[in-house]
Design a protein that fits this description.
Length: 267
């Protein structure tokens, strides 16, 4: 059995509270074996070329998010080590026997993908609303992820990409980009005034898409002036900086922000 490097956390060896960051260790090379795991017929092995670091990875790095999900999911799998990461681009190097006929994905294809591994069996999945699957797993959180040189992943999570249209390293961001596409295609923004709360990675994608889809005015809102400067460069017509104010409760409304939104959207 050959070994490959991966970025991981091991709840027994590292501990959740007693460690920080991503811990590099050698793991077994993933392989397809349909005789012992029939589901491998619809899985592929991807050689990862670029990976993205999500805001949720920062929470994992600092051990202040997804604590319960890590514990519960590893408990169910009866193991203690999780391979982290969920934003990726790479090349298919091996494919299960049903992958070509079901998904038209082949060895040699460049692929990115979605981090949500849905069950395909629950009511929501069968209604075509996989985003609210009752038994959803997330790569790098509640199932093994992609911070490794080779990963096994269900073919249905993959999206074949075209490097002649999108730069290779940007293709690693299809997962967060998908969030922005989902938001901006749920409502018709043509001619609308759109306020985007949070000018992080997904917010920036949302600004570009809102402009592309014909929003009349795009307003970016954030606590960080540098992010708002980039938002403006990307096409936000207006920006609102949320400044620290004295509030009784952290959840109290920021009155200056509300007033400014009312003004910009003509209430
Ligand atoms: Zn993410
Ligand atoms: Zn489901």
């Amino acid at each position: 059995m050959s070994h490959i490097p991966a970025l991981t956390i091991d709840l027994e060896q590292d501990g959740w509270e007693t460690s920080r960051g991503f811990i590099k260790r050698e793991i077994e090379m993933p392989e397809l074996n349909e005789s012992t795991r029939p589901s491998d017929a619809v899985s592929v092995i991807v050689k990862v070329e670029f990976a993205g670091v999500c805001g949720s990875d920062r929470g994992i790095w600092n051990r202040n998010s997804f604590t319960d999900l890590f514990r519960e999911s590893l408990g169910k799998e009866q193991k203690s080590m999780r391979i982290l990461g969920h934003e990726f681009v790479g090349e298919v190097v091996e494919a299960g026997s049903l992958v070509a006929s079901m998904y038209d994905i082949h060895v040699g294809n460049p692929v990115s993908g979605d981090s949500h591994v849905t069950c395909g069996k629950c009511f929501q999945c069968r209604m075509g609303e996989q985003e609210v699957c009752q038994d959803q797993k997330i790569l790098g959180i509640s199932t093994d992820g992609i911070f490794a040189t080779y990963v096994k992943i269900p073919a249905k999570n993959l999206w074949v990409v075209d490097f002649t249209r999108v730069r290779k390293e940007l293709c690693a961001l299809y997962d967060p980009f998908g969030n922005a596409v989902h938001c901006l295609t749920k409502v018709d923004v043509r001619g609308a005034r759109v306020a985007i709360f949070g000018a992080g990675q997904i917010g920036m994608f949302a600004i570009l898409l809102a402009r592309q889809f014909g929003a009349a005015k795009v307003i970016a809102i954030d606590v960080n002036p540098e992010q708002l400067a980039i938002a403006k460069e990307l096409g936000a017509h207006e920006t609102i900086l949320i400044e620290k104010t004295d509030k009784t409760h952290a959840y109290d409304a920021d009155k200056q922000v509300i007033d400014r939104i009312m003004e910009l959207t003509y209430a």
